[in-house]
Structures are given as structure tokens and as C-alpha cells.
Please model this.
Amino acid sequence: MANCNICNKEIQEGYICAECARAQRAQSGQGQPAPRPAGGGFSLNSLTKAPLSSQPPAPHTPPQAPQGLAQPRPSSVSPTPPQPTSPSFARPVPPPPLQTPSPAISRPPQPPAIPDNEETGEATPADISYPDYDSGHAGIQAQQSQPPVARPVTPAAPTFSQPAAPAQTPLPNRPAAASPVAPPTAPPARNVAAAPPKPVAPSLNQEFNEEQTKLQNEIFTSSVTGYGDEELEIAILAGVMKDSFVLESLKGKGLIAGLFSTRISRSIYQCILSLRDDSPELSGLDKIVLKNKLRQMNLYDASVQNLIDKIVTEIPPALDQALHYLELMKEQALKRKLKEVAQSIHGYIESPAQKENLNLETFTNKVIQDVRNIQKARTTKRINLVKEEMRDIIEDIDNREKTGEIEIIGYSCEPMHYLNTAISGFRKGFMYAIAGAPRRGKTTFTLELATRVATLNKIPVLFFTYEQTKKNLTYRLLAKESRLNPDALQRKKIRSDMIVDAKFTGGWKKMQEYMDNFYIIEATKEDTVDRIRSYAYNVMQDFNTENIMIFIDYIQKMPLSRNYMDEKFKVEEISTELKGLCIELNNPIMTISSLSKEGCMIDATPDADRPTMYHCKGSGDLEYDLDCAMIQAKDWGDTRELFQQLQHKAEEMGKDTTRIPKVDVVNLYLDKNRDAPEGIFSTIQYLFFIEDNKFIELGPKFDDDRYRFSKIEELVDKLIEQNFIIFYDRPRDTGYNKGRVSIKLKNF
Model:
């Protein structure tokens, strides 16, 4: 039960009562014709005027008519056309299917499907109570062949199984009338005969998608109205009207016309779909275009005008809000479906004369099937057969025969070539983590990867930091690109020195390549995984893309909605939630993990041991949720050899040997690399310029250290040649102070 929003009168469902709706139409000067005396507003108040058992089914309402309500949009071929000619969908021969769905294919002239009870305004519960149970046993079998209860793959095949067939070219431009469609009947029949010997993967995918769409429409679409939220539906309509990306995202998540609770909201949504199909390049639709389209479809009246005014003034929701609203609408739609089932049961019991040819077993089986479909629709996890995924795999394999092989699967992070090849890029749905002791450059390394992903792939990248400020990280980015010390960037004069200014200008130009796609978020205790999800959806909406990558620095600092006394359980839950978010977004997530004290001690000891993921702080179970686990550790042998050769080189050049540039050789161990390419190296070496916050990839590390000296010697020559290593001049009074201890106290 509900109350009228104007007079507060108790009504069964909807937003306003019939009397208030009639008064609004009279005030606006748009009286309604005789067929709709009791309609108006957002409700069917005539449902309360007669008991369920008092009236038999109206003869003017065919049993199959409510099936037309399942059609979300007139431009789609997969839903059942809004025609009461259900026997034509049994398709004993090819010609009837081509003539029947033609109004659904011709988009502009065809109005959207409207419930029969909404059109008359005086429909009784018996009129809509059992649309699938009114025809006897034979009628039920015929209706089950209609979508989406049966799997009518055959009718879709003559029309769309071969996309390149010439006979299908005029289909989208066919007129609304059924008679002009007769000439193209013969070519599709030949396509049906030719389709079985040549199964094509794209046609299989198309048939499967059409079948899934029909099932979706059947579950969520009902002839019963009400049980809706006007404010919720206005927000959804405002979002899909003003932002095309929101519309496509919601359609991908299951938004159909049947989810709206009233005739008016359904009509406006289908009108928006029609306008989007006609002009897909438009980012948003305005009020005038929508009104004109509704007038062309003969759907414009005072009630529609009132709702459009509310939609135009409504602030469109963000993508994450719209997705949440969609789930609420699905729940309300399933309640309407349950009410339809309840009315069907009541009508079967109270009107046995109308069901004399329908036995109890057939009727109960259909009821059980509908209830199970409602139950399955509320589950968030999809249970699919392997063959459904094989359709996409076969299509991808066939496409590679034409387009060529793929170098990497995920997002590229060149010029880190060996890492990029080893992990085949950052793959969608994969979760990555890098662990290491302090001072090993974990944050600097992930910043290097994040900026390369944003530069090469032109996708939004979110970098969440829980331990540093945005400005500090920006200085580090500028230092990395310009090869200037962050401290010098914050303290010293930049423009006065020509060399420093040239470096700064070069770093600024490099940052311009990704600064429009790179976000740094100063995370707080409020930024849980749910908040990160909201950030991701909103940024995807801003960029009109489904591609994104998230970096988190670091996982032990992330908050949860509840507190844990044990850090082990906290890290495990955060890791599980991040993995779920990774799968939900179908995009990669990379996080940083700190090591425990034991792991830090192992890394600080120059011996053969090294830390692993089991030495991560809080939990070693993090590795089980990861698709790729990386460990950073200092290579003490190569670092010592590099330092000694730098000293010798400085002495040869007459430079100061006491101030050698700080450069570490860091090994990156790929302890876990799911679905790794064949023949890749599991250990990659990097040069870490500590003072410049810069990583340079050296290549794979080999177990044989016999050529370490020659390798480092060649490396030092290249670094000096490319100006990566710059030695300091000796002090002028070196000879005077040689062998002496000089102590200078300042301000003492």
C-alpha cells in the first residue's frame, strides 16, 4: 500500500491517485480521451476497483499481450516484438519470423511497448494476472517457445547469423509495415541452410547474447506496475539522458525498460534509447529533443511533461551511485514479478472455467520456474558453462589470424622491457604486489610503473598514498623525470642555472605526457576499499572508458570498516577485498607491501639469503590472493663492485673519490607469476639512483658471477658517457689538508 503524493489518499501502488492525475490534466488543458478515464500519473489505481475473483479475463486482452512488456527497447531484435501474434514465433517456416519482428527492427517510427492495462486505464487484476497461464497445455507449449523461456536460436539465425550476408543489409532500414518485408524472405532462408556447415564464432556470440537478453527481459519485466520509487527512477533517467557513458555502463549491468515501474518512465527510457541510437555521437540529450521525439511516438501528454521537467532539473548521479540505484530498481522489479505470479495463482484458483484445458501439473511447473528465475536474478555471482567463455576465446583466436599476434596481453610499462615481457603487461583482472625493505625504492619503482602505464596506454591511473603528501610525491616525479634531487627542487634556484633549468624543462615536458591521466590521492582512514571503488567508477565515467589501473602505497596502511586487533586478519581481509575489486572492475591493481623486521634483517645482511613474500608484514597469506608477487632486494655483490669501480674511475679522472654518487643494484624477484610466458627470467636487475629517485632496467640476472667485473666496467662507461654519473671536483685545499684532521665548528 502507498499514499498519494498530492492528497495523501491511500492507494495500492504508484505515486498519485487517479483523481489527482485527472485534475492535473484538466488544469493543464489536456483532457484524456475515453479509453483512459481512470489512468494518469504513475499508477494503475483501477486494480483496486474489483476483486481478483469478480471478473474473468477481458476478451480484448490476448493472453500473450503482456509478453510485449518484456521489450526494453524497440531497436533490439532479441526481445519479443510488442505484437500479440505469439504463434508466429514458433517459426515452423522462415517467412513468418521476418514479417513479425519488422516493427521492432525499424526503430524511429515504432513506439515502445506499453502495458495494455496502462493504455486502457481500467484493467482489472484478472486482465493481467496470468498472462502465461491462460492458454491451456498446448498454449503453454507454444508460449514457452517464445523468448525468453525457450531458446529460440533458430529465428535469430536467418537474420543475423551471417553478418556479412547481403540480404541483411536492408534490415535496419526496413519500414514499419510488415508487407514490404516479404521480398527479402527468400535470402534468409538460404542463409539458414548454409549456416550449419559454416559455424562462425561471432554469430555464436550474437545468438548467445540475444538469448541472454531475452532471459533478462523475462525475469525482470512484468505487466504489473507500482512498487517503484519515483525519485530513484528520475535520478536514473537524468543520468542516462545527460551522460552516454552512464547509459552504456548501466545497460551493460542489466538496465532495461522493464525495471521502471510506470508506463511514463518506461516510455521516456525507450525514447532516450532511440535517440541514442539515432545520434550516438551526442554526449547528452536536451529537453527539446526528447519532447519532439515523444510527440513523434504519440507518447507526450501532461504527465510526461511533468516527469520530463523533474528529470531535467535533477542532478545526474555519479556512476557508482547509478550502479547502486540500478540494484535497488532490480529488487523492486522482482517484487512486481512476484506479484504477477501471485495474481496468476489466484486467477487459476478462482477462475477454473477459464483454465479447463490447463492441468495443475503444467501450471505449477511454470510457477516454480518463474520463482526460481526470480531467486537466481538476485544472486550476484554468475554460474556459466565453459562453452560460454569458449565463444570469446574462439573469436579472439580467429581474429589473431587476421590481425597478427599480440606482443603483450595487458597494459605496457616500457621501457622496462624485461619486466614488461615477463609479466606480459599489467593484465586486466590481475592483482600485483611488490614487497621490500625500507630504502629499496618501492614507492619510486611503482611511480615509475604508474607513469609509464599512463603515458603509453592513455588510461586514467590512480595512485593512493597512505604515508606521503601529494606535493611530496609530485616533487619526486619531477625529480625522476628531470634527474634533479628533490631537495634541490625545493630549496635552490632553478631558473638562474642554465644546466639545472634545462633539466627542469625536460622533466616538465616528460610529465606533460601523462599529467592529464595521472591522479595522486592523499588517502586517509576514510579511504577504504569501498571508497576506492567509488573513485574508480567516477574516474571511469569522467574519461568515458572502462580501462583504469590502481596503485596503492601501501596495503598495511589501508583502513577497514571495522577494527582488528591482529594485523594478520586485517591484511588478509584487505587483500581479499582488493582482489574482489580487481575482478569487479576487470582492471589491474598493484599494491606495495612492507616487510617484517625479520625480512628487513635478511635484506640488510650481505649473504645468499633474501626475503620472500612470507616475510611481509602482517601476513604471508598475501601471496595467495596475488597473480604476480615481486620482491625487491639489494644485490650486495654487484653494488659493492659498482662502488669500487666508480671510485677507481673518479681517481683516474682526478675527481673527488670521497663523494661517489649513491647508486644501488636492486634485484627484482618474480616469486609468483601466473600464466607467465615461456622462457622468461625470474630475476631482473635495476640501477637505483637514490639521490635522483630514478630506476633504470639493466636486464636479467644470471647465477654465474664470473663476468661480474667486466659487466660492471662496461656499465660504468655507459653511465658516464650518457651523463648519468657525474663526479664532484676535488676541493682546492686538498693538498694542504692531506693527512690532517680539520674540525670546523659553526655557531658554537
Q: What stands out?
A: The two ends are 86 Å apart (CA to CA). The CA atoms of residues 161 and 203 lie 5 Å apart.
